[in-house]
Hints:
Layout: E1 11-14, E2 17-20, E3 31-37, E4 40-47, H1 52-70, H2 78-83, H3 92-107, H4 117-123, H5 135-142, E5 151-153, E6 156-158, H6 172-186, E7 191-196, E8 199-203, E9 212-217, E10 229-235, E11 239-244, E12 249-252, E13 255-258, E14 273-280, H7 283-296, H8 298-306, E15 312-318, E16 324-328
Antiparallel strand pairs: 1-2, 2-9, 3-4, 4-7, 5-6, 7-8, 8-11, 9-10, 11-14, 12-13, 14-15, 15-16
Amino acid sequence: MKSGSVLQYASLLFAGWIVILASCRKDAEPVTLTGFTQGTTFVVRYFGVADSVIIAQGIDSIFRIVIETASLYDSNSIISKVNRDEQVDLNDLFIHLFNRSMEISEETDGAFDITVGQLVRAWGFYRKNKLDVDTSKIDSLRNLTGYRLVHIDKGRLVRPGPGLMIDFNAIAQGYTVDLVARLLEKNGIHDYLAEIGGEVRTAGMKPGNEPWVVGIERPAPNDSAEQEVGQKIGLSGQSAATSGNTRKFFIRDGVKYAHTIDPQTGYPVHHSLLSVTVIAGDCMTADAYATACMVMGMERAVEFILQHPGTEAYFIYSAPSGENAVYYTLGFKKYLLEK
């Protein structure tokens, strides 16, 4: 992983977002740290006086502990050991991710569920080569799915038996952004943008009292198409996350399977919602809510967001005509900028 490299002016592209970095005044130079973590890219940009080396080292430490705790691709991580049914003491980070996940699962009536690991694996979304899936296999794996089946007792994960897998992918990245934001604020930085793989948290303003500008990606026809800005938004003190299926899917026998799994059916979701961008006070919540909304579908997701004051959302969906259409909550309007 690289960290500490400084880009004075750049435009970096990330899944779901286009983070626009080139619109700052030249009379106030920002510090920008970029690199790779958790299988994706990150950018941290801030204005203020601080030791960039200390901040870069702190960011590295955050990334390291998150990977050692929650990475499914690290065979020595705590979550990998848990999923192999090894006896392992859980650290504070794992416990916090777990407890917040349980809260959000309750809020979303199970649309958000960290026990979908076996279903995700069965459908092959961890790999390029999709696995064979049949109804009987999915029905069997559904018996290993359900957030109410697990709890933590005396620092250990308790579950009904081996086979149930935990997956923090829909929440850990957002929480990592929150940890980076906490580090920046601890070091006296109050004007910043922190982004990892499309999950964003902002604070303060850019010079000239300007908000941080990010772009919501226009739905792409396939995973190799160039990213295009569909809508710019301005953020100051908010977090945002986008979840969508326009790039993450596979087609078998003429049927398109999205990468978002409905925990209750065991199958990839099939509805008109293409992507949802959620704005919330912290990135962990925005990340998880965005995933939950993609499971719910348009009608349920809009109702859910309206029931949570301080949370706003921007929906891109496929209209009956076949064209892409947009709907956003009333409070989202204040974040919209000219295209």
